[in-house]
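Re: duplicated header lines in exported structure tokens

Our pipeline writes sequence and tokens for each protein into one text file. With two proteins the header for the second block appears twice in some exports. Here is an export where it did not happen, for reference. First protein block:
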Amino acid sequence: MSGEIANSHMNRVRSVVADEAAPARSAVAASWRRCVELHGLDPEAARAPDILTETQLRAARERLEPLARVAQGVMERLAAAIGDLGCCVLLADAQGVPLERRGSASDASVFDTRGLRPGALWSEAHQGTNAIGAALVEERALTIHRDQHFHTRNTGLSCTAAPIYDHLGRLAAALDVSSCRETLAEGLTNLLSVAVVDAARTIEALNFRRAFAEARILLSPQADRNAASLIAVDRHDLVIGATRAARLELGVTDSRIAAQLAAADLLSGPAEAEAEQQKTALEDAERGAIRRALAHANGNVTAAARLLGVSRATLHRKLGRLGLS
């Protein structure tokens, strides 16, 4: 990269960081400011990503099992679909370290040279603004295209990443698609972003079904918009697990699950809830009328039935149904 381009990028970063309003308008600007003010990074630093030792990489892979195992097939299919675009697929842990890579063997040396390889540290604190690091911090899918990267040395990359949550709804990993080719059009990154997000949600759903293999898996009412919005129910129809999407959509928390949350209460829609409320209100009104009649009749069921205009047998049935004595 020429000195003129490098200086231009450095000046742009400094200008955006100096703009107090910029971080509120852009995730990239917010990340650039974190890089400067929180991590003390220099956009001109030419340092390549640090690489874990084999022992450290092996330990990191063990920590992400078995989520990484269920992700293998999804990564293979995604890599097969985009391999001709000069892209690689990376599965990184919550610390921003790629643990697995899929892509064309002919591009492997290029990816290695750019640090797009297992064991590299791609957290925002280490490599500045990049898709893996920023997506983990922001906890949402992000595309960092070319000069949106913080470090000048990374401005030749185009990357899209989406966070992955485990079966307990905790941030566990990130799925990334990166390209080193300058011929990758910016418009194409929108299609890649959709593919990455769909693949990440598929991995979440597969991992959730694996973790609750003995349970009944139900789709939340919003599942038509998010295939990873799932809950796990035991044989007593109590909720024992929920994906992050279901937790956000249905208000599921660990404490609610621990308190024996009934699936029926969780999945009943507005119409069912309103009907249940109306039923409860009617029963309360009926219960109050019977109590008043019994009070006027000094507890005599026959007299109370006469006051209510029903038979003695009918009143006995209502007493049993409403839990009155």
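Second protein block, exported in the same file:
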Amino acid sequence: MSAKDERVRDFLTTRRAKITPDMVGLPTGSGVRRVPGLRREEVAMLSGVSVDYYTRIEKGDLSGVSDEILDALARTLQLGEDETAYLYDLARTSRRPARARRHPRSAVSVPRQVQLLIDSMSESPVVALNQQLDIVAANTLGRALFDVVFASPTKRSDSAPPNMAAFVFLDPAADTFFGNIDEAAGTCVRMLRAQAGKTPHNRQLTQLIGELSTRSTDFSARWAAHDVGIHRTGAKTLHHHEVGELDLGFEELALASSPSIALSTYVAEPDSPTSEKLRLLATWAATEKVTAQQ
């Protein structure tokens, strides 16, 4: 990694553009401002550093920048928790570029014990995602819920795992499957951006981002915005071709034994229409399995 990182420059520039003077208690003045957000000198003043020092940082050089200054910048730019973590990841790479390369390959499967755990959660759809959003494992209900993703032509080969981001941006079926395709697209990009900060030399991730940037103008535009975030909890509306619309709660479960994998679990309110549809989906999946074995 070079001393000057374009990701640092672009991230800080886009964050600075989001903060207006009134948001940090500065007078707007009567003149025309040439920038949409704060000026560099305003960020420097509010963060307690010189303009020259902040300019060096924003040009992409985080080497030697202390945690105290990173925290001051995060406060000034009103960064969220995930954005602050991303800034620290960029700084870590800048400080120790050799160490930043020492990351294991992304998982393409899960340990047997993890698969047994997933299978034991039989009443809820569960899928396991690796660092670049490949679905590397699922229980029966999870595979049934996301069967359109597993069958997507965006898979690189029959043996390759399906990729959630490729499905969202490259498969027209995603528009029907997701109740809010804009939200799904934004979530994928923010998660990939956060992961790129943690593992900048992840070859599979870099290849995926390059492919999506080339093939999807929507992805390219969203990637250029440098938005960052981790999707830990929330609600999703999905439309399954057999059982219809499902309103599901979502929780991400981290695995201490397999930190490169996260379990995405989906739950329905008890006695709700969606809970009944999940039971129908389970019956449909069992029937499809029997048919396939015949």
